[in-house]
Amino acid sequence: MPITEFLERNAREWPDETALVEINPEHENSEAKTSWKEYALVEMNYQENTYRRELSWQDFDRRANRFAHLLLANGVQKGDKVGILLMNCLEWLPIYFGVLKSGALAVPLNYRYTADEIKYCVDLADCSLLVFGHEFIDRVNEVKDQLPKVKKLYYVGSDCPDWADSYYKFMYYCSSRNPRISLTDDDYAAIYFSSGTTGFPKAILHKHRALMHSAVAEKKHHGQQRGDCFLCMPPLYHTGAKMHWFGSLISGSKSVLLRGISPRTILRTASEEHATNVWLLVPWAQDILDALDRGDVKLEDYDLSAWRLMHIGAQPVPPSLIERWRRYFPNHQYDTNYGLSESIGPGCVHLGVENIHKVGAIGVPGYGWETKVVDSDRREVPQGEVGELAVRGPGVMVCYYKNPEATKESLSEDGWLWTGDMARVDADGFIWLVDRKKDVIVMGGENLYPVQIEDFLRKNDMIKDVAVIGRPNERLGEIPCAIIELKPDVTATEAEINAFCEALPRYKRPREIIFDKVPRNPTGKIEKPALRKKYGSLDIVSIQTGTGK
């Protein structure tokens, strides 16, 4: 069944219970705390100076219905596409569900997109309407006259620009009743975008069936119950955050959207909202541990007794990080999740809370999923050998929208999705991610997997983050180059890093060291294309000394 039916069930059975909370640490000294029902009666004004806003299941469903009716009143029909360009906020999910309830396809957009990227993605997805927030006024204004398919712009925020319409003003006049648009699992539901690591992103088309399966798989993996509280920080435009949140939807439990990420705000919010389930990215977990090590935050200042599960996704997780985490939080369950937007986000592979002895592996096939590891001819390789990971299940995309060539390259006729990730399977059936296929370094005919070198370097107490890329070399073809971000107020030399690397086999040791910041995208993945662009053509890049300032 379509996932919208869970929202309608929650509104019927638990109408006044809290569904969503938004915490904005920028206004932590403000006494303003409000529910959506309260501020909806104040001319629908956006409470930009509010520290905490909340929304009940009934009002969540009503707002989704109102937005669905607003879309229908604007001529949006079943199968049309609606772009969503918002930072995480209380409005995000009701707008998303309003799009689904109208029969249209939701098209979430990355909040880091430039004006040109916004134009490209809106055009590619054939969006006929765009909803955007105040952070994007300048970017949307720059391209609004270059979007011939977009018939209407709706603005979420105060001080609506004169070239857009106010979301709040027009929502006020729309019915809060279910629009009763017929939906099935085989109807198209959403278009998501790839990370765009090889140029402009590709549009990924999913059916309602995929959204529904992601919700079921998430609950199977993490066991959300009515009394749980999910603390969500990654961006909702990405499949990862939203599909983890679907576990809260299907269980009818509360979720908290935290804007503004720091060790203090994470721990404070987890304490105040009694979070039970917290999804972190590697850099955030690292920051919390470093802050605890330095004494910048102290666990005794917070009530974290409700917190039962910490899980991480979006990238390989260094085992050393989890070892450190469990020293501070010995009672936490831990899980890691692997997925792609093409496989509706997390869940096609997951470790499982019962398998903490396998930390470092990405896990086993998720609920309802199949996996295999194949060679360049897409024949399954023997256990233990490295090959490309392939996945198959109900969450695999329909296609790359309007890109049959890319679809054919990534999707087999019998439903296998070629992930582009290199992996191996151990004797116990656990999958270990080795690296991205395109990130493998070939040095003198030898394959080097940067993730393995990165995991080793992260064991060094001076290092906050690290990325290893291949650099051109006349003799060897490529050599491994380590870009190292040091912890705050730490100074290190190339000689010290090289001495630490003597524990690695000689062929795996970085041949060059650069001290610099390691860039990551909003989902926590290292932006290696940016590093290759920055350093890939320099003759000499080795830097003798770095400082973590």
Q: Which parts are unreliable, with pLDDT below 50 for 5 consecutive residues or more?
A: 38-45
User: How many H/I helical runs?
Assistant: 16
Strand line-up in the sheet with most strands:
2-3-1-12-11-13-14-15-16-17
Would you identify the CATH H-level superfamily of the domain at 53-207?
ANL, N-terminal domain
- Number of E strands: 29
Compact overview of the structure:
The chain is an alpha/beta fold and 549 residues long. It is built from 16 helices and 29 strands.
Could you walk me through the main structural features you see in this protein, from its secondary elements to its overall organization?
By secondary structure, the protein is an alpha/beta fold. Among the domains are: 53-207, ANL, N-terminal domain (Rossmann fold, 3-Layer(aba) Sandwich); 440-547, GMP Synthetase, Chain A, domain 3. 28% of the residues lie in helices and 27% in strands. It has 16 helices and 29 strands. The strands form 7 sheets. A 10-stranded mixed β-sheet has the order 2-3-1-12-11-13-14-15-16-17, sandwiched between helices. 46% of the residues are buried.
What's the helix and strand layout?
Layout: H1 4-13, E1 18-23, E2 33-35, H2 36-40, E3 52-56, H3 57-73, E4 81-85, H4 92-101, E5 105-108, H5 115-124, E6 127-133, H6 137-143, E7 152-156, E8 165-166, H7 167-171, E9 188-193, E10 203-207, H8 208-222, E11 229-232, H9 239-251, E12 254-258, H10 263-272, E13 277-280, H11 282-294, E14 309-313, H12 319-328, E15 333-340, E16 345-350, E17 364-365, E18 370-374, E19 387-392, E20 399-400, H13 404-410, E21 417-425, E22 431-436, E23 441-443, E24 446-448, H14 450-457, E25 463-473, E26 477-486, E27 491-493, H15 494-500, E28 512-515, H16 528-535, E29 545-547
Parallel strand pairs: 1-12, 2-3, 4-5, 4-6, 6-7, 7-8, 11-12, 11-13, 13-14, 14-15, 26-28
Antiparallel strand pairs: 1-3, 9-10, 10-20, 15-16, 16-17, 18-19, 19-21, 21-22, 23-24, 25-26, 27-29
Helix pairs in contact: 1-3, 3-4, 5-6, 8-9, 11-12
